[in-house]
Amino acid sequence: MKFHLIGSPSIGKYRELKFYTEIFWKKKDNFSLLNLLMISKKIRMENVFFQKNNNFKYINSNDFTNYDNILDINCIINSFYNNNNIISLKKYFSFARGDKLIKPGKMTKFFDTNYHYIIPDCFSNLKLLNKKIFDEILEIKKIGILPKIVLMGPITYLHLSLKKINKFYKNVLEIYIYLIKKIINLGIKTIQIDEPILCSKINNNFKFFFNLFYKKISNLKFKLIISTYFGKINDINIINNLKKCTIHLNIENFSLINFLKHDVSLEIINSNLLKKNLFNLFFYKKVKLYSFDCNCKFIPYDLSVEKNLKNKIYLSFFFQKINEFNLIKRIYKKKINELDLLYLENFNNYKEKILINKKFKIIKKKSINFNKKILLLTSIGSFPQNIEIRILRKFFNKKLINLSEYKLIIKENIYLCIIKQYFLNFDVLTNGEFERTDMVEYFSNNIKGMESTKNGWVQSYGTRYVKPPIIFNVFDSNFITENWLIFTKKITKKKIKIILSGPVTILKWSFCINKKNEDFICLSISEIINKEIIFLQKNNFSIFQIDEPTIKECLPINKKNWKLKINKILFFFNNCTKFIKINNEIHTHICYSVFNDIYSMINKMNLDVITIESTRENMKNILIFNKIKLNLGAGIYDIHSPIIPYKNDIKKLIFNFLKEININYSWLNPDCGLKTRNWYELIKTILLINKVKKYIFKENI
């Protein structure tokens, strides 16, 4: 049995990449750059030796990234306007985050995951201007290993650019062919090209370019592995038209094996964290390789560092799954030892019944509450969490301070945050979310049946890492928000917006162990959110923001499967709003999504106000909202960039916003939570927004 990886995690076992990257962003000196390069090499070498020590057939190269894999390709082939210079690591980060000379790249989500990528922008000036891929090949060759190169496929790359078919598409194919030739000239014998687009419905134009590209590279001397993941292959004939190669399939495509004329690499271990996925044992002559179902960057590193997980015996993280690979190999070769027998004897499957309420009614959409004032200013929820808050949380977790001391300091910060919001003329306030680490993790800590890890980090994008909770089952939980919001209400008479994570997002941004029953689990979470809203309404709260940033990424990548999933999403969201009073407002926040094909779904959601991220799009993505009868906050301040905007930039954004959306239906807000920014940046930007707002009011008068 021969194993290989589709991709390895890039962040380091203890998030080393994040810390060294953020130090470089802050200091921007040669010493911090050198440290970042060293830690990046350390992580790459750890991955290489880990694969080598476990006797993998192929050792990967080019699956490591300092920010995101698509940005890596953007920089290698120069898919940027007005750039003809070598792209250094400093410039690489500027294309992602922006600086004084470069605007930050547009960003959206990678198929149906929470992994964000920088959208390719320009195909008219393609050339090789970054040597990352070649340097990493030479780095591995120096230690005597000939690696397998992992490369995002050109057809998927074109699809991810979100551009309509244009005359520059062939340029992308040509630069890819040139890149592959350069890689082969370095002695590389095997290249893995990822084409997850094969699991979606491909139009005739993409089919043409797919056939054209793979026909042209079929004469080059290297072994080709085409990797697909995220679902079932939509059209097997596209693959069978290719020259013989190896196709990686997940278990959903198992029935297609006998119809493929190619060799097969098959999923034998699932990325679900449950141990029971160990024994997907299938041995076919056609199957030459075995692997995971998808890239391993989507799962946490190591279960052994988790000390307080109640259901740890049922779980398996990346390192444990690699050990399971080796166990499968020993079982296959009939060479199991005493430790293997001990492991198998203590092998546990999670078995617990899920109880649900079977009585549900059709939920009618309530009439929309349009704004009574124009250009209301609010935040998405969180405010900057300074060093004091982070140290406080560490001390509390290590039991160096007690609960009453912890709560007192959090209340002090909430009080100061309310004062600052008064100073900044916010019309609708939030409590600042100082009691919360992450929008989903906080809820998981307060919902029975969900568990949070201490070190189960996965990358969302750049240095934004998240710890997805693990859902075993969901039991009734009341008063998730505890008394934080009631305390906030005592110190102000202004309207307070309640921030709640939606049921669909809580499920999507968690590892759901029981995949077969995840709809019932989502329904149970929806009921819990519903009860929380009833409790808060009794305490005279009237504005509820139920965040659902994942509704687009929850949809299957094959659009023919959308209808059923959309109906489920609508039911789960509307179910948790069913007891909100007619005069009370329902908000939601959806981030970095493409709305053109989901606006009809948004129109059916029980909503009054939707806030989105539009700064990087220069308000071009709001055009579709003319078809939706909702109040809209388009996001005036890009909080994912370190740039403090000028007054003129804010003025342009607001004017572009008001050109498309009626001022009576418009809200002003930062485009996401402010947790990662500092108070200096925030105060300076919000004061500029207020100046532009006053100017608009004077002009209208």
Low-confidence stretches: none
> Which class best fits the helix and strand makeup?
alpha/beta
Mean pLDDT: 88
Helical amount: 25-40%
Strands of the widest sheet, in order across it, are 1-4-5-6-7-8-9
- Please provide the count of β strands: 21
Class of one domain, according to the CATH hierarchy? Alpha Beta
Q: Largest sheet, described in full?
A: 7 strands, parallel
Lay out the secondary structure.
Layout: H1 16-27, H2 30-53, E1 60-61, H3 69-77, H4 89-97, E2 107-109, E3 116-118, H5 132-141, E4 148-152, H6 154-160, H7 169-185, E5 190-194, H8 204-217, E6 223-227, H9 236-240, E7 246-249, E8 263-269, E9 287-292, H10 318-333, H11 338-345, E10 376-377, H12 387-397, H13 403-423, H14 441-444, E11 450-451, E12 458-461, E13 464-466, E14 470-471, H15 484-490, E15 497-501, H16 503-508, E16 511-512, H17 518-538, E17 543-547, H18 562-575, E18 585-589, H19 599-604, E19 609-611, E20 631-633, H20 647-660, E21 666-668, H21 679-700
Parallel strand pairs: 1-4, 4-5, 5-6, 6-7, 7-8, 8-9, 10-21, 14-16, 15-17, 17-18, 18-19, 19-20, 20-21
Antiparallel strand pairs: 2-3, 11-14, 12-13
Helix pairs in contact: 1-2, 7-8, 12-13, 17-18, 20-21
Task: Give an overview of the whole structure.
- The chain is an alpha/beta fold.
- The protein has a domain at 16-345: Alpha-Beta Barrel (TIM Barrel), CATH 3.20.20.
- Helix content is 37%, strand content 11%.
- It has 21 helices and 21 strands.
- The strands form five sheets. The protein has a seven-stranded parallel sheet. It has a seven-stranded parallel sheet with strand order 10-21-20-19-18-17-15.
- Helix 1 (16-27) runs antiparallel to helix 2 (30-53), helix 12 (387-397) runs antiparallel to helix 13 and helix 17 runs parallel beside helix 18.
- The relative contact order is 0.09.
- The mean pLDDT is 88.
